[in-house]
Amino acid sequence: MKVAVLIAGVQDPKWPVTPSGALGEEQGDQHRIMSPFDEAALEIALRLRDADPAVQIMAHVGGGAAGVKIARTVASLNVSDVATVALDRPWDQAATARALAGLCGDADLVLIGREFGDFDDGLVPALLAGVLGLPFFGRAQAVETQGGARLLRESGGSSERLALTGRLVASVTNDRRTRLRKPLMKNVMQARQAVIGEASAMGEPVAALALHQLTERASGRARTDCTLLDGPAESRARALAALLWEERA
Amino acid sequence: MSGWTILSVTCGGPAPTAIPDSSHPLLLVFPADETGEALAGAVAALSGAAVLGRIAALRREGDDLIVTRATHGGRLSLDLRVAPCLAVATANDLGGTDGEVVLGQPASLAIERSPLADQSVSLEGARVVIGGGRGLDPEGFVQLERIAKALGGAVSASLPAVDLGLAPVARQVGQSGKFVNPAIYFAAGMSGTPQHFAGVGARARIIAVNQDREAPVFGFAEAGAVGDARELLPLIADALEERRGS
């Protein structure tokens, strides 16, 4: 089985982000990390390879030159087929999906985070499946490999399992079962020396769409004058319980 | 004057059906949930529509639309200018559309389903939501379940809490999780990041418990208590169970 993993990378939320910095991702990779969704997608690919060494993993990391640090992390997990890719209009989800489609080749399974980077909110994966003409399994949470590979998710009160028997695009969400493993130190050292290639991808831009402006976002929630309850723990708890009880109806 | 028609989509399933006539500028707004996202993507791929993302606001400007959506986990705001075309978007609670349309059909994937053991109150439509963050431990979430049960509410969690395995991802609320619009949101052990509260409707009244008096959540909560959740949550649960039993 050939598995393509598409890793977006995001700006580390521990660091401030500015509109000019957000659009100038080629400036440097110091603060770029994998998102929890990227990590889960990669871990599922690794689990599939653990179960069947014949599984081939190919990974692409967004951000162009700013994606090299993440690409080395991927390489340190024994994924030798890894390259970065520059995506010119990351805010244009259709162009991004079309560019990614050109990277998937004849992969049997395409794994992509539930959101593809800072500018996506969940539409790129489904759009990618549509562009590739493949079925889509959204928000996968884990993988089972005993007795055949199956993707798992929970949805609408049900646990759902999909056997990996045909070509598929699956988006992956964060789950404690798919936290990304740590690489061996010797592999980290080797990955520092690895030559990371750069793939080219052209997603035809949507002519009707233009970036108007990117600004810092004011909190969408009005400031309040919070009433802080005081007194012993029991009285604070009773007061909070009374508030919740009154407001529940 | 803008000639746009804006239709709110009700999903029949995640696979596309016939797309409405788009000889005039048309924006289809899908629900910002799992099925809505899958269908919006499929429709856009089939039709070549412009994709606008999960929009929070829109306005008409001449022949164009200007739409606003959050990026970078809710830290930045992006405005896109959309010239007349067929466009798709998702939204949580966008009002002011021109009408509704039903699209979609069930997908053909052979998915095995089995009921989850956790059949507690669904987050969608819950009037009271009891949320926990990474400031809690597993016992803290047990106490949240007691509080939710006493109030007939649903339990939610932040992304870091889900990452720590404190709650299933189906309970995740936030920019990258579900959107809830309860009357009351009780926030325990969470600092109050924009990423989390992007998933809580503006009408919700916030009540918070946090051991850090400077936590941002107290900046928009109506009431709260500074204290150790391990101490306060069991006492709150006891008091509510007492009220329910009386």
Q: Quick one: CATH superfamily of chain A?
A: HUPs
CATH topology of the largest domain in chain B, what is it called? Rossmann fold
Structural class of chain A: alpha/beta
Biggest pleated-sheet summary of chain A: 7 strands, parallel
What's the mean pLDDT score of chain A?
Answer: 91
| Span between termini of chain A | 54 Å
The domain count of chain B comes to 2
Q: Mean pLDDT of chain B, rounded to whole units?
A: 91
CATH superfamily of the largest domain in chain B: TPP-binding domain
Q: In what order do the strands lie side by side in the largest sheet of chain B?
A: 5-4-3-6-2-1-7
User: Distance between the terminal alpha carbons of chain B, to the nearest Å?
Assistant: 62 Å
* Helical content class of chain A: 25-40%
Largest interface: A-B, 85 and 103 residues
Work out the strand percent of chain A.
25-35%
Put simply, the count of helices of chain A is 7
In terms of structural class, how would the helical and strand content of chain B be classed?
Answer: alpha/beta
Annotation, overall tally of beta strands of chain B? 13
Query: How many beta strands in the DSSP annotation of chain A?
Result: 14
In DSSP terms (H or I, runs of 4 or more residues), the helix count of chain B works out at: 5
Anisotropy-based shape of chain A:
globular
